[in-house]
Amino acid sequence: MDLGARLEGRRILITGASSGLGAHFARLCARNGARVAIAARRADRLQALVGELRESGAQDAISLPLDVSDEASVKTCIGDAVEALGGLDTLVNNAGMASQGLSIDHSTADFDAVLSVNLRGVWLMATEAGRHWRETGTPGAIVNIASVLGLRVATGVAPYAISKAGVVQLTKAMALELARFNIRVNAIAPGYFSTEINEGFFETAQGQAMLKRIPMRRTGEMEELDAPFLLLASDASSFMTGAIVPVDGGHLVNSL
Fold first, then answer.
1. Can you give the chain as a three-state secondary structure string?
2. How many structural domains is the chain composed of?
């Protein structure tokens, strides 16, 4: 099965697409013939990526301003994406942020900021897209970007781990509720990949120690997310919902 071919003509909205995994997924979708809307807060980066996508042949790629923590912004973004793309087939909830430090050293504001983007933002986007699909009677797919830290913990990232555990349960709960409307909700749980959010970490002593705890003894390459993403973002996964797919080099099966 050619998973990439299953994206041809598919209308996809990707949040947090100004850098990292979101930008990578946008390039992947465009390369495989999808009609792509990318959304984030950093408008300059979005415009640069749209230019790149159009130069590569995705002439109808568009960018949309979005703050996933703001309900009005979410509603506007979904509406504008539907109008510009002529509908919506797949929502990719990728926007996220992290914070470092022991939980007792975090302020309430730190905690609220992470949960607002990583969990509340996913909720707002998924429910708004779900309402659109229910009201129009059209099928839809949601791909949430969770994390292995939603399935196990590490020191110094409590708000992030808590938020991603919430995304895991949100994925399962919404999958259960929305299946009757032909709306599928799945998640990818990446392990450790080098992105802007952890830039420089794996060169530190702590980062090197982390790598030694991964059975494959390395971080993932972005391209190693492509097949799971293409599966969940397309109708190739038409009988999958509520699935959490780890891509982690064996991190979750290591007992350390």
1. CCCHHHHCCCEEEEECCCCHHHHHHHHHHHHCCCEEEEEECCHHHHHHHHHHHHHCCCCCCEEEECCCCCHHHHHHHHHHHHHHHCCCCEEEECCCCCCCCCHHHCCHHHHHHHHHHHHHHHHHHHHHHHHHHHHHCCCEEEEEECCHHHCCCCCCCHHHHHHHHHHHHHHHHHHHHHHHHCEEEEEEEECCECCHHHCCHHHCHHHHHHHHCCCCCCCECHHHHHHHHHHHHCHHHCCCCCCEEEECCCHHHCCC
2. 1
Tokens 């399962």 correspond to 172
Q: What is the pLDDT of residue 29?
A: 97
Taking only the tens place, the pLDDT of each residue in 37-76 is 999 999 889 999 999 999 988 889 999 999 999 999 999 9
Residues annotated as catalytic are 160
Q: At CA 22, angle to CA 215 and CA 191, rounded to 5?
A: 15
CATH number of the domain within which 70 lies:
3.40.50.720
Give the range of the structural domain holding residue 85, as residue numbers without chain letter: 4-245
Task: Tell me phi and psi for residue 12, to 5 degrees.
Answer: -130, 130
Residue-wise pLDDT tens digits, 223-253: 999 999 999 999 999 999 999 999 999 999 9
Q: Using CA atoms, how far apart are residues 137 and 145, in angstroms rounded to an integer?
A: 25
Give the separation between CA 135 and CA 197, rounded to whole angstroms.
37
Residue 155 maps to a domain:
yes
Name the β-bridge partners of 143: 92, 186
